[in-house]
Design goal:
It is built from no helices and eleven strands. The protein has 123 residues and is mostly beta strands.
Length: 123
């Protein structure tokens, strides 16, 4: 079983940057895809970025050019570098992992979730 723990959230002003980290433990070698999702109050959880074991990446249109997903396999850690943050980026950010074959972009495709880390961007 895989456990995920996020860190790095916080409060920043618009235009600022944050880097989120997600440390995985357990049977991490079975993970095929990992991703970042976010959820604002009263809204559904949405995909932000995903990366598979080959390094292939996918980004939501709203974050393309501003966010970068990466991973360090030696540290079993997933990152999300967030630049040029906007108030609409505010939300609870979750790290997720799946052993599903193929590229996973949607929340239902993931079976392991962290507890989330809060990101608040003020205007």
């Amino acid at each position: 079983q895989v456990q995920l723990v996020e860190s790095g959230g916080g409060s920043v002003q618009a235009g600022g940057s944050l880097r989120l980290s997600c440390t995985a433990s357990g049977y991490t070698s079975k993970n095929n895809c990992m991703g970042w999702f976010r959820q604002a109050p009263g809204q559904e959880r949405e995909g932000v970025a995903s990366i598979d074991r080959n390094g292939r990446q996918h980004y939501a249109d709203s974050v393309k050019g501003r966010f970068t997903i990466s991973k360090d396999n030696t540290k079993n850690t997933l990152y999300l570098q967030m630049n040029a943050l906007k108030p609409e980026d505010t939300g609870l950010y979750f790290c997720a992992a799946t052993q599903k074959v193929g590229f996973a972009r949607l929340a239902w495709e993931y079976n392991t979730w962290g507890q989330g880390t809060q990101v608040t961007v003020s205007s």
